[in-house]
Amino acid sequence: MQMKDAITMQTGGAAKAPFYLPQGDEVAVFEAAASHDLPVLLKGPTGCGKTRFVAHMAARLGRPLYTVACHDDLSAADLIGRYLLKGGETVWVDGPLTRAVREGAICYLDEVVEARKDVTVVLHPLTDDRRMLPLDRTGEEIAAAPGFMLVASYNPGYQNILKTLKPSTRQRFLAVEFDFPPQALEIDVVARESGLAPDRVQPLVRLAGKLRDMKGQDLEEGVSTRLIIYAASLIAGGMQVDRAIQAAMIEPLTDDADTKRGLLDLVTAVFG
Q: Which residues does UniProt assign to the signal peptide (predicted)?
């Protein structure tokens, strides 16, 4: 496994802050957590803006950001580091969590419950007053540098009982609940991100609301704000509305032919 494919690094700087439109007081809560060296857990559905929010806040605070996309094969060693053979010598190479601890950066674990169970054990000493990362393989105990912050996210509505955070882990974090924005706010976000006029975005957002109402019935997940932006971007680029919706808001939601036909009927009802 090549961890570089699952890790991104962003340098700080408020001038480079990605666009994010707050829904409530999440910015103030995050800033307060950062000022008190507290870890934060972001909870909410896929595509509602959790990752964009963290990138925005890292730039706003002027801190480097390491983002790790968690998956079934992600182990504690992938986060902490390992010995590698370089030029005939065996050398220790820090993982993204260790680099963030040393540098005073933000480490963001996206969909943390997808990682192997040994990952959460590693996080515990960093999420209490110790703020310490033990490296068993090197014998080091690294005190978190000023500015280090641990942020994790997951989708509680999607995870099953075998993939959830234990209460002993959840209670080490402040938690902020995310959801899809109210309709007027979502129209503003999609219009800004896609370049499509708000009056043309409005029916796409209305359709998304109806699709989200089907979650847990015909659909496992509702349509994300991200997918609405994809559809709006295609339309802004000249694609026919019905084709853009099918490609961006129907096909990604299901493979079942009968369900897709039902969703397309819903599109016709909304757009005529």
A: none
